[in-house]
Amino acid sequence: MAIKGFQGTSLLDFPGKIASLVFFSGCNLTCPFCHNPSLLAEDADLPDLPLELVVDELAERQDFIDGVVLTGGEPTLAPELDVLVRQIHDMGLQVKLDTNGLAPRVVERMLRENLVDYVALDLKTAPRRYGELHRGPVSMAALQRTVGLLLAADVDCEFRTTCVPGFVDVGDIRQIGELIRGAGLWVLQQFSPQVTLDPGLADLEPYSEEKLRELASLAAGYVERVELRGLR
């Protein structure tokens, strides 16, 4: 796992902030609908970026950004994560972590040491279906532990589900809802077939706005607030 990409600024990836994005390679899931498939393999066909270069780039931008989004791939697998986060905080910038929640010990440490200011946890489908998302076993105990940590933590967070037809429907929303019952924010995102790990999904028709609003209405029975993203 290594730092593979850097994007200058974004207004969309850190709520209320202007942020730079840092992309990590490697993941402990292989979701067919992954929208960053070039980052999944540890030997992703992208050059490694030295940590020092990323820090220097961020330092040049620190006067006009509010924070940094750590995404991927799966950032919690990266050995250089803590070092980078501490240097980001030393610049006076905030940190948002995007994660699939399968490394609870990393998330717990970052919460305990106040290393993150916002966490977005991707919930891919109903817990019983996670075996469809990887070639190897997936620990639901790990996911449940991370969910519990975030529900109890004094940190801003969102739970996020991309509504992929065939992977997320009414029954799946109910099961995810039970997992995160009482959460502050659940974001439902529109699926985009433009780039996916499984090229067979390129012809998959995304849900209609009406269907997404139906799923959002159902989700609202489990959490304080539901937000829809990606509607056109």
Automatic annotation (TrEMBL):
UniProt keyword terms in alphabetical order: 4Fe-4S, Iron, Iron-sulfur, Lyase, Metal-binding, Pyruvate, S-adenosyl-L-methionine
CDD domains in the record: Radical_SAM (cd01335)
UniProt GO MF annotations: 4 iron, 4 sulfur cluster binding; lyase activity; metal ion binding
Domain of life: Bacteria
Keyword Signal: no
Cofactor: [4Fe-4S] cluster
Pfam hit, one: Radical_SAM
Domain Radical SAM core: residue ranges: 13-232
Classification via Gene3D superfamilies: Aldolase class I
Xref: PANTHER family: GLYCYL-RADICAL ENZYME ACTIVATING ENZYME YJJW-RELATED, PYRUVATE FORMATE-LYASE-ACTIVATING ENZYME
Protein name (Swiss-Prot/TrEMBL): Pyruvate formate lyase activating enzyme
Organism: Geothermobacter ehrlichii
